Structure formats: structure tokens, C-alpha cells
Amino acid sequence: MVNGVQVVKGDTPVANGNIMFTGEVLFVNESVVSRLHQQHRDKETPPLLAFPWFGAQFLSHAFLALERDRRFSHITRFLNLADLAPHVSGTGYTFFVPVDTAFEAIGLDKMPDNYLSNGNGLQVLLNHFVKGRLYDRDLKDGTELLSLGNSTIKIARKKERVDVNDAVIVESEVFVYNLGTMFYIDKVLFSKRDFLPTSTIANDIIPTQRRKVPSIVEKVPDELLEEMGLEPDLLTENDATTSTTVWSTPNVTSSSNATIK
């Protein structure tokens, strides 16, 4: 026994030494593994997801992680119906994620799920993404970042406080495996005054039903990928599940001797 671990094979002489094999790794237990996992989550390879957006693995894993956190009910419902996958395809991104109170402060909590799904609304969402996986050490005072919405994000740092434009980072370096990084912020970035909702706008917009995300998301079998010849990080095609079309059929009346084709 070595530190309580069984030696499974005796002496194995080698040049200038001897090898002995054990059944377990020494000095490693569940708490050590858990600590290492948290410290090096940015190096962990994730499972390949077929849902919500097969061609956007970072976005898919980030969405599923945020959906499990009650602080992000608004950003997830807006992401759910926005056609972001073509813009945030593959991996290697930084996502500045507003908490729910950020949306409530400007009235977006009362807006339907499709309010940010296109046009200026889609630009608001894209302005929270930056190409490249950033760490806290990369957010230096005076740094300027170009968002996917083609807007400039300015970083201001003073001691432990980091500002992203007029927002403050409330939680830093939330790693989405080795796909990218999230930083939680307390305000919505680039929320223009003329874009903010009014009571008139709110009454004119028809609420849209959300797509339900399954509680268990299975990875795509390797055999299927080999048959299809797909490389998930290179796929840039739009995911058919990211948009919803509602067809409305008008009432049609005709006389009894009319033929309807």
C-alpha cells in the first residue's frame, strides 16, 4: 500500500530506477478534482450540442448555462427568438451579459420575447458580443473593443471595479468551457433613448410564444458527424430552429356553385 492505495504491480526495474504501479492517482480526491475543475474550466472541452444552435456552440452552451440562472430570464428569452447564430457561429467569443435588473431599469422587461429579434433590437444584442476569448487580465484601463454590432466598447478600470461603457461588471470570468467567456454586467449596453419602449409600442406588439428548451440536450453522435462529414466549428449555415414563422389563413367565403382551387 502507498498512502492507502493498492500497488497493482510489483517491481519493474528500469535503467537507473524502478517502477511500481498503483490503482489510483496519489494525493487526488474529489475536493481536489472539484477545485481544479473550477480553476481550469476554460481548458475543458464541451460536448457537441445539436440544440439550440448546432453551428454556434459557444452561443448554445452560454444560453443553456444562463437559462439555469434566475438572474438571466430576460436575456435568455430575447436570445431564444433572435437569429444570432449566423453572427456568433463557432467558438471564441466574449459575452457581456446584462442581469435582469438591467432590462427592468429601461422597461425591456415588459416587452415580448421577439422585441430584440431583428433590426435595431438585434444590434443591441450583437453589441454585447466581442470576437475573441477574453480574460479579466485583458480588460485593462483604456482598452477599446469592437463589438459584433460594430460599436466600440470602452473599458475603464479602477482597482477592483471594471466598467464596460456605463455598465459595471458584477461577476467576472464565467467560462463557457474552452469556447469563450462571459462577464455579467448591471446595465444594457448601447440602449439608445429613441429605441426604448413606450406604452404605445408595448400595446402594438403581439407577444410571441417561446421555444421550449428540452431539459436534457444530447450531443451529436460521432458516427453521424463522420457520415455527414461535418466539422462543427466550421459550420456557418443558419440553424433552422432559430426562427419561428407563424402562418395566418384568412377566412374565405364562396357561393355554393363556386369552385375553389
Which key features would you list for this structure?
single chain, 261 residues, alpha+beta, FAS1 domain, two-stranded antiparallel sheet, 9 strands, elongated, cell adhesion molecule binding, FAS1_domain
Protein model, in words:
It is built from seven helices and nine strands, in the order ββαααβααββββββαα. It has 261 residues and is α+β, with helices and mostly antiparallel strands. One of its GO terms (biological process) is cell adhesion. Residues 59-189 form the FAS1 domain. InterPro entries: Adhesion/Biosynth-related, FAS1_dom_sf, FAS1_domain. This is FAS1 domain-containing protein.
Q: Which architecture name of the largest domain does CATH use?
A: Roll
> Helical element count?
7
On the 0-100 scale, what is the average pLDDT?
Answer: 80
Helix content: 10-25%
Uncertain segments are 199-209, 227-261
Shape, per Cα inertia axes: elongated
CATH topology of the largest domain: FAS1 domain
Helix/strand/pairing category:
alpha+beta
- Please provide the ordered H/E string of secondary-structure elements: EEHHHEHHEEEEEEHH
Would you count the extended β strands for me?
A: 9
Query: Termini distance?
Result: 85 Å
- How would a textbook summarize the main sheet? 7 strands, mixed
Evaluate the radius of gyration.
Answer: 25 Å
Proportion of residues in β-strands: 15-25%
CATH level 1 class label of the largest domain: Mainly Beta
By CATH, the superfamily of the largest domain comes out as FAS1 domain
